[in-house]
Sequence to fold (275 residues):
Amino acid sequence: MTKEELFRNIQTKKSYLCVGLDADLKKIPSHLLNTADPIFEFNKIIIDATADLCVAYKPNIAFYEALGPKGWESLEKTLQYIPEDIFTIADAKRGDIGNTSELYARTFFDYFNFDSVTVAPYMGEDSVKPFLIKPDKWVILLALTSNPGSQDFQLQTYNGEKNRYLFEAVIQKSQTWASPEQLMFVVGATRTDYLERVRALAPEHFLLVPGVGAQGGSLAEISRLGMNKQCGLLVNSARNIIYAGNGTDFGQQARLEAQRMQQEMERYLGEYLPV
Ligand SMILES: O=C(O)c1cc(=O)[nH]c(=O)n1[C@@H]1O[C@H](COP(=O)(O)O)[C@@H](O)[C@H]1O
Fold:
């Protein structure tokens, strides 16, 4: 999917919501546990309930890998079930020496046909580039993450420069590897105090912003500080939506929560998106 197509979907749906498909056997409603593939059944109902309200789905690969081959099967069926016009993110946080990254890229782009994959920048250019060889596939690079540990490296000053953080060097350097048509950055919703600095360095890029809801980030702040002229935001929420209910009506409960977010997003799009 191109950046323009993603923006058009945002305009049509009046939403920049990304639903995190972090399905966990320990948390899904118990009535699904005696079906042949409980994780897929769960995802199917969540997708049916939210597809008209979101523009992206992000399965976190850990939730599938943890189940062995069965988990991969649930992931494959889930991917096939997601409607064609919805952007898909393999949240895998990969990155390795070149020939290994190449195989990770084949896994997520060729085998599963995801639109994008989250990649860790730590190993540098040759670990990221193999994910960029297909012009219609995206890298979503970890820049400033939502967790407390982002202090350990990402928020340390870089190269002896007093007022420049490592995450800023990541954002600047990686722009020499790919254009905003293929590169997004992860910026945690709990880090809105740095969003203006991110936008100063990456005015055109889409940002994947996880950490609203369960982790406490504010949709209002993200939207006020992070929106650019093509919206430029995909705001992810997983637990708050997918586990909004735990009974047989969990799909409806998930829909209500997704709808609440979409309606709030519609207001911000009206407020901040230049017409
Ligand atoms: O790359 C990510 O998606 C990610 C980056 C980050 O900084 N923080 C973060 O929470 N995530 C992911 O976003 C999702 C957040 O889920 P909830 O907190 O349940 O909404 C999980 O799949 C995390 O792995």
Q: What stands out?
A: The beta strands are 17-20, 56-58, 87-94, 116-119, 138-144, 183-187, 207-210, 233-237.
